[in-house]
Amino acid sequence: MKLFNQSLAGLLLVAGLANPLYADTASPDTKQAVRYLELAEKVDDNGVGTGKTCRIPATQSLTINLNNDDEDTYDCTNDEHDYFKLDNVRSAVIITFGEEACNSGTINGWEFELRTIIDPITTPWISLIKLKDRLRGDIISRGVRLERSRQGGDGGDELTCVKIKVSDPG
What pTM was estimated for this model as a whole? Predict the structure, then answer.
């Protein structure tokens, strides 16, 4: 009987059922991690996003036009956000910021495409305007690489389009 109890305890430990660190992982409240792309109009001296701010979940692929009803969904404001930060975002997520409306076919404005390369990654506030001075392949912040950029328009001002492409967990 002692051998049976030891075997059962070992099986429960391997399955994670006897370990309190993993006991809550199956609960509905903890299945989905909190992952966000945050936007801010300004950043104060303490590194806090101020002015017009909003949070967009980065758990699924999204295309958000800030110049139409999409801005209401996430409480973002067209042409008002000059900074972004990532909060607990997975690796291999591609984030595109653009001056023109998403999928407008217009190529006059600026556009920056970033890729996360650390899993997960949280960044400080990053200036969109300063991205215009960076080169393809540059690490713009720990865990975030500039994949491509297109100059035009004001070069980082007047954010209108945000695209998040989450890689398949395959």
Answer: 0.76
